[in-house]
Amino acid sequence: MTQPTDIGTERLRTALSMAASGMPVLPLRAGKVPFGNCRRCADNACGGRPNMKNAGPCACPGPCHAWAAATTDPDVIQSGTWRRAWVRASAVAYHPGGAWLTVVDLDNADAVTWARETLPATRTVPTTRGEHWIYLGPMQSINAVRPGVDIKSTMAYARYLGPGTGRMTELPDAVRALTVKKPPTVQPTPQATTVPAGAGECRHRTPAYLERGIAMAEQRITDAHSAVHATVYRTFLAVLSTHGRCGCLTDAHIGRLFTAAQGKGESARHCTDAWTNARTRLGL
Asked: How far is CA 282 from the centre of its chain?
């Protein structure tokens, strides 16, 4: 009969081997979930914030904080607290984004069929119900991008189920596009405006003027490195203050702004709320 200590030793060896190849690892307990925060780190007392972009391992000696605890440090992995965790663990996991990887988690046969028909071939690893397709390059993690398909990369963890087969290829645009949700249709209400006599057609409808304004707004959102929520709102406000009263904005223009915002991690709902709030503030 295999003893828990033997299993723990084998998982520890696997973890050390993975870490040596540059893959940040962590133990998973029963149910494929990470070990919960210890008393020392309860309520994030240590400052570790695994759901925030600036998260990282805290000074706690235990494997706390889910994916943010993943490490390649062999001294940490085989320390006393971690050794006890390996004995209790049910699996070894890793942080794909920390290893510069993206895992397309295909949870059933239909999802696997879809991937084979749609995505470029890459390294594949069999799972209990489907397959992991592993690509070179990190991206935003998101679940349920389509039926039976999850994306695991930055700020996420994936079970290690073996080396897999096939050559790992570069992360394709087809996978990145899965996380970009189609913006909701927003139909701005045209507003009448008074054009001075002799001024001719509203200059906002001049293709070059309008295109330049939308392109500048897209760039402003794309260049945001912090305070993305506020930047999106202020940009929407600026666009509407300039173009919102003459009816020159189309669904295509608004869709471009929403797509730029979602490319920075904003949800479709936040985009809609920000747009509505900006219209309300301007009385549109």
From this structure: 33
Q: Tell me which residue has tokens 């189920």.
A: 161
Residues 63-81: tens digit of each pLDDT = 888 888 899 999 999 988 8
Give residue 158's identity as a one-letter amino acid code.
Answer: A
- Give the Cα separation of 148 and 52 in Å (integer): 26
What number of CA atoms fall less than 13 Å from residue 29's CA on the CB side? 11
Give the number of C-alpha atoms closer than 13 A to the C-alpha of residue 72, restricted to the C-beta side: 11
Q: What is the pTM for the complete model shown? A: 0.62
Q: Under a CB-based contact definition with an 8 Å cutoff, are residues 28 and 159 in contact?
A: yes
Q: Taking each helix axis as running N to C, give the angle between helix 251-263 and helix 228-243, from 0 to 180 degrees, rounded to the nearest 10.
A: 170
Q: Which amino acid type is present at position 274? A: A
Determine the Cα–Cα distance for residues 150 and 158; give it in Å rounded to an integer.
Answer: 11
Smallest CA-to-CA distance from 235 within 181, 278, 190, 273 is with: 278
Measured CA to CA, the distance from residue 136 to residue 104 in angstroms comes to 11
Is residue 120's pLDDT more than 60?
A: yes
Tokens 């985009």, residue? 271
Residue 82 burial by Cβ neighbours in a 10 Å radius (0-12, 13-18, 19+):
buried
Whole-angstrom Cα distance, residue 61 to residue 43? 16
DSSP E strand stretches across 140-214: 142-146, 149-152, 158-159, 169-170
Question: Tell me, what DSSP letter sits at residue 102?
Answer: E
Which letter, b or e, does each residue of 182-200 get, where b requires 16 or more Cβ atoms within 10 Å of its Cβ? ebeebebeeeeeeeeeeee
Mean pLDDT of the chain: 81
Residue 220's identity, in one-letter code, is R
pLDDT score, position 205: 55
